[in-house]
Write a structure and sequence with these properties.
By secondary structure, the chain is of the alpha+beta class. The protein has 17 helices and 35 strands. The radius of gyration is 28 Å and the shape is globular. The C terminus is likely disordered.
Amino acid sequence: MPKPLKRAPGMPTAAEVLEFIQSSDSPAGKREIAKAFGLKGQEKIKLKALLKDMAEEGLIDGKKTAYHRMGGVPKVTVLRIIEVDEGDLIAIPDNWAEDAPGKPPRLTIREPRGKGPKARGPALRRGDRVLARTEETESGWFAFPMKKLPARTEGLMGVVEIDGSGKAWLAPIDKRVRQSARIAEVGEAEEGQLVIAERLGRSERAGVRVVEVIGDPLAPKSFSLIAIAKHGIPHIFPDSAISEAKVAAKLPLSAEKREDLRHLPIVAIDPADARDHDDAIWAEPDGEGGFNALVAIADVSFYVRPGSALDREARNRGNSVYFPDRVVPMLPEVLSADVCSLKQGEDRAAMACHLRINAAGKVTKFRFTRALVRIAHNIAYEDAQGLVDSGNPPEYLAHLWEAWRALAAARAARDPLDLDLPERRVVLDDKGQIAEVAIRERLDAHRGVEDFMIAANVAAAMALEAKTAPVVYRVHETPQREKLIALRDYLATMGKKLSLGQVITPGLFNRMLKDITDEAEKAQVMEAVLRSQMQAYYGPANAGHFGLALASYAHFTSPIRRYADLLVHRALVDAYKLEQPQPDSALPATSGLSERDRASLQQVSDAISQTERRAMEAERDTIDRYVAAWLSSRVGEVFDTRITGVQSFGFFVTIVGLGGDGLVPVSTLGAERFRHDEAAQALVGTDSGTTYAAGDRLKLKLAEANALTGALKFVPVDSNGQAIEPRGVRPDERSKGPRKVGGYIAGKRGRPGNIRHQGRRK
């Protein structure tokens, strides 16, 4: 911890805070800044406001636990080495987004400070990833490696290609990797097979070596395997975790130690293809115009004890990852798909959240118990909706819908952010082949279950706050000022106003969208509002949930698939004395928070926020590949599309009603030059003024569908449906097919889910 600075007492200026952040040898968060300047009580509250103002003014960036200068680099971060410059290794931040404004800072790698052989650190080369401490000096940025991180398989996973001279090449499956790599050691791999490779030396000329053959790149399960390998998702449980899961699954359930709720007709409403069942609900009128309700959640903390091998693996995974063809669970299947899963007619251990809901939909009372439940029905959303729509639903559903209507009224009064964001759904047949790609229908049944879960999540956060217990909050912060300024400037190009002098609330955006009657324009504004939002994360410091318009929010309802929820359950066990020790078990006795949990709540929150983002990227990549495979037989067709983003090199579009995302390169827009209007999110023709702006709908021809990378490419068409002549194409090239250096690109004659191999151009 930093020592107090020698200075006059009182609040520091923004310049002093910025100087401290830049000069600190360790990460400087709110706590470190307060201690360094000797701030206490009300001064800490003023410091919070000062830091917020500094962030809005573009002076600093980062989280409350580690700030850094805007445009700079965190004190400790992950770097990727990109080149060797006169003997020096040069690195950039590993998470620097391709579409981020400006160029990423370049850091020169220096040997770690210290003496002796341990201080030298690992040998590094181009492409390596390191956890490093960073320092900004007058001479530029420097990095001191702390730990070499495992290599990602991006660019080292691909398909074996053989060129005309018999040489083997690794065609990449990552859309960000442009070039094929020479395979120096092909091993037993054959042409057309999907493989994982490793580099043989620092120089690209050294080539790569095939270390694992996955097989047919278009086999039904290859797309998810690609995502698992590319993102480094742990998918094989260690033997120790499997053994402990089997022991935990045999723990006895006693009605004497738990609240016996088996008499209640509790129902679990889930997707028809759900692999696990975390939650179930029940409600009945209370005779006073309100409702008594119950949200029963799988009691995972009873089975997964802190400090166990099972717990370590769950913490490492952070969450389950869901693909169209499989799930990579956070817990072994004996727990996730069986003992912990709330199945119809089976006695199950549950954490019960009892709710009292008044006629206006407000939760007036809540309490938490460990319970024994027996689910009366497992019902798919569509089936539940059908029973309600029939006009004569069973009583348990009728009561649930009545209680939900009250909750829905309270939700409407709260006015949370309401963005109509379609969700793509890939349906596979019995052989694992793509049967359908469609937009998932949004039903009242979905909304009803969601509102019950939100009510339980809020109750969990408030229950822990009432006991001043540790909380892992689900945080969604108010949009940063710079994002709101960008949104205001963008809306101004459409003749709309956004006053930044008012309090920014979700309802403000809702009213803005509600007043727009033109669907194309509404989609355009909705995209802009979405871009202005912050990314949600987990953390022990409460900053509210802007999107849901809630002051306190935690995740309590999915402990089978989210480690954050498991931590909340453990905190409730401690706070409300719900411990049920198992002295005869080989597992750790406690099911509450361990000392490690308490001491590292910030670190584990950061880690599971990262694993959540990793899962989202992997799931999105896989859906993209399935969609590209689905569209591979439709290359050459014209689709109705909507522009979702604009860059200087072109614009991105999505197929209306399907959601396949692709790029329209600026070079395909014809002979005219286009300038990028960043404020208006548009490309504007320098001669004609022709404009392509975010939200615009237009007809485009699908030119390429690469199932291995998930990339789609579209080109504009004229009034006759013919592709516009690309800029800079020679007459002798007009009839040629896609110009790509290696890889697999869908052809017009391909079958659904199949792709045509293109030879490697020298």
